[in-house]
Write a structure and sequence with these properties.
Elements: E1 4-5, H1 16-22, H2 24-27, H3 38-58, E2 65-68, H4 71-85, E3 91-95, H5 100-111, E4 115-119, H6 129-135, E5 140-144, H7 158-167, E6 171-175, E7 194-198, E8 209-213, H8 228-231, H9 239-277, E9 281-283, E10 294-299, H10 304-313, E11 316-317, E12 319-320, E13 323-325, E14 328-330, H11 333-337, H12 342-345, E15 348-352, H13 359-379, H14 381-390
The chain binds pyridoxal-5'-phosphate.
The site of pyridoxal-5'-phosphate has 13 residues, from helix 4.
Length: 391
């Protein structure tokens, strides 16, 4: 039995074509692109091509792409840069539902004396731009708002947010790690100053990312040392990974229509069928605009971890909305920010699909999940009691 992998927001399989593209750059074409000789020069050419491909997916110019080690590095580089560019400004704005790559940094900054505003979301995970308007002021150095949420798939109105931020002269960054490759982006007509992306979310390997930096936006490097990446990110280039990211971006561009149709259709069918077959459930963020591949479903009166274990026995990989912190099961900060009731947040499961998934796999999950939920509710005295009173 082969695994059914519905956890693509956690990471994706490397596309075979991406792997083939990077393969020669380990044992054969291993030159350093900064070397003067032909052997390094041919690698440099291929890295340039990769940069062009990343830029093309974003509608950016190749000079605006900085290769990094991951989405987390891109996020950190963007926010730290803005604080160095504007040392006199001491205010940072973000949202309560960011990935820890942004949120942990911002919370650390607040311990170091920065004023940090975390914008709220409503019950569907949506942002209120009036709250942003009221929060941004002359002291704001940077606003960092994610493009799409990794847990619910909810897409934020980042272009409108960027316009508000620009009026106040602050820098606008978006963590687009979950959006790139899934929805079309065009930096040529955008209010975004900086944008983070990560290779392993779009069928490139782990350990490669990029930061889009709009031409003219001042920048201070996070890593200093050599002159790589035009002095904006020191360290010998991860050549094979850069080349892989370039290929993955090219493929993502050519598969974009499929994300919008086939992947979305599979997600919608999965969601609709589970809603029909299972009582006492809700879609987290179901009323908001969402990524085509993601659904987060809350099953009342059951533990997400128990559902995941039983799915895993059937070789089905999904993920729970809750993180296990120091032995106590804490519901996810995203679902808490949305005000999802405790009994729902605990039983939330995220399914995230990709172009490698099939209709047969969707059928299997539709067949396997309802009896799992039924069984768990039967053995949970809490669930039994509650459901008896609701039904
Ligand atoms: C929204 C978001 N931002 C940032 C990251 C971190 O990316 P990376 O794993 O490449 O550091 C992730 C990964 O899960 C993510 O989903």
């Amino acid at each position: 039995m082969k695994e059914i992998y519905f956890d693509n927001n956690a990471t994706t399989r490397v596309d075979d074509a991406v792997f083939e593209e990077m393969r020669p750059y380990f044992c054969n074409l291993y030159g350093n692109p900064s070397s003067m000789h032909f052997f390094g020069g041919q690698v440099q050419k291929k890295v340039d091509e990769a940069r062009n491909r990343v830029a093309a997916l974003l509608g950016a110019s190749p000079d605006e792409i900085i290769f990094t080690a991951c989405g987390t590095e891109s996020d950190n580089a963007a926010i730290r840069s803005a604080l160095e560019v504007f040392p006199e400004k001491r205010h940072v704005i973000t949202t309560r539902v960011e990935h820890p790559a942004v949120l942990t940094l911002c919370r650390n900054l607040s311990k170091r004396g920065y004023r940090v505003t975390e914008l709220n979301v409503d019950g569907e995970g949506r942002l209120d731009l009036n709250e942003l308007k009221a929060a941004v002021d002359d002291d704001t150095a940077i606003v960092s708002i994610m493009y799409a949420n990794n847990e619910t798939g909810v897409v934020f109105p980042v272009e409108e947010a960027g316009a508000i931020v620009k009026e106040k002269g602050a820098i606008f960054h978006t963590d687009a790690v979950q959006a790139v490759g899934k929805i079309p982006l065009n930096m040529a007509v955008s209010t975004i100053d900086m944008l983070s992306l990560s290779g392993h979310k779009l069928h490139a390997p782990k350990g490669i990312g990029a930061l889009y930096l709009r031409k003219g936006v001042p920048f201070r490097p996070f890593l200093v040392g050599g002159h790589q990446e035009k002095g904006r990110r020191a360290g010998t280039e991860a050549t094979a990974s850069n080349i892989a990211l370039g290929k993955a971006c090219e493929l993502a561009g050519s598969h974009m229509a499929e994300e919008k149709t086939r992947v979305r259709d599979m997600r919608d069918r999965l969601e609709k069928s589970l809603m029909e077959l299972i009582p006492n459930r809700r879609i987290n963020g179901g009323g908001a605009e969402r990524l085509p591949n993601t659904t987060s479903i809350a099953f009342e009166f059951v533990e997400g971890e128990a559902i995941l274990l039983l799915l895993s026995e059937k070789m089905i990989c999904a993920s729970s909305g809750s993180a296990c912190t120091s032995g106590s099961l804490e519901p996810s900060h995203v679902l808490r920010a949305m005000g999802v009731p405790f009994t729902c947040a605990h039983g939330s499961i995220r399914f995230s699909l990709s172009r490698f998934n099939t209709d047969d796999e969707v059928d299997t999950v539709i067949r396997e999940l309802p009896p799992i939920i039924r069984r768990l509710r039967e053995i949970s005295p809490f669930g039994r009691e509650k459901l008896a009173s609701v039904n």
